[in-house]
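Hi W., the 2-succinylbenzoate complex you wanted:
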Amino acid sequence: MIPLTPTGFETRVLRIPLVTPFETSFARQTEREVILVRAVTQDAEGWGECVTMPVPLYSSEHTEGAWDVLHRFLYPALLGNGPVNPLLVAGRLEHVVGHRMAKAAVELSLVDAGLRATGESFASFLGAERTFVPSGVSVGIMSTLDELLSTVQDYLDQGYARIKIKIKPGWDVEPTRLLRETFGDGLLLQVDANAAYTLADARLLRRLDDLDLLLIEQPLAEDDLRQHAELAKQLRTPICLDESIVSAKVAADAIVLGATQAINIKAGRVGGYLEAARIHQVALAHGIPAWCGGMLETGIGRAANAALAALPGFTLPGDISASDRFYAQDITAPFVLDEGRIAVPTGPGLGVEVDPVRLEEVTVRSEWTRAPSRPGRTS
Ligand code: OSB
Ligand code: MG
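Structure:
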């Protein structure tokens, strides 16, 4: 990829209303607060999405923290230091510990700019082998079983290829069994606990074993690798780690330990799409199925996810739903379902354009950071 000289970054906090509240074991969301990064370089502009939430409940990152780290530590490492190879951005930011979601957004904005400069699509750059990816949907915790049934029925009518329901203690075996009994053996079904259980719940979780689930996602805490390996010995249902997998290194450790039999790959959680692609290689090499997770992305992150999910090792349907699953109006043209699939963008870079009017409507905070003027120059 061509080296770029970044001249500035525009950072925006967006708040976009959700079409329906989204409840997980850790939070109930009615809007998506997200950070959008625009890189301006001498050759082209590019976009990145920082998938932090306003509260540090899914992971340790959150909006205000990411905003601070972007402005005080990440942008200064890239501005005023000459050309930057977008593929080496992660290395330039490595001295900052953690803050992977913020790093992922910066890297994506420069990779997008680099690809737009040469006209190559992100999918082609990553080595995508598919033009469409199967679309799964993540269904939040509901207040009643009836509401769950009608919601899932509606998604199936729309053509979604796979259903994932969020579970927590008190909302686990019963709703999952009801879905299996109602929709039959053909339904591709999985559950996501977002770390809501402990190893002491093994007996309860074993009751999911006869429901023929594709997998159970992140039953235990983020740092419970060994305990996930213990739990795996007691379950037939494959365990799929999400929160725990923060790098390719941890992915390899988790696989070898027997802690994970499938992997949810999210670029934000692991520090960028390049690390995400490496995790996919690790999974492929071990014969472990991988799939692309989601963080209620806008059209920017959704476009990037579709490209990532088109790599050959993404063998299970991802959480890449149509835009209208979350948003009545997105900041790009919406992604739509086509026979249960999403089309992978083919245009330069991420292949989607941000609608400036909609962007302005949903922006609650914005700031420009420019490269410092070079010392020694008078004009
Ligand atoms: O655990 O996969 C998760 C959303 C926010 C935080 C964590 C998770 C999720 C989802 C939604 O499940 C996936 C999507 O974007 O469709
Ligand atoms: Mg998850």
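Residues 58, 138, 192, 194, 242, 293-296, 319, 321 surround 2-succinylbenzoate (ligand 1) (CB under 6 Å).

W.
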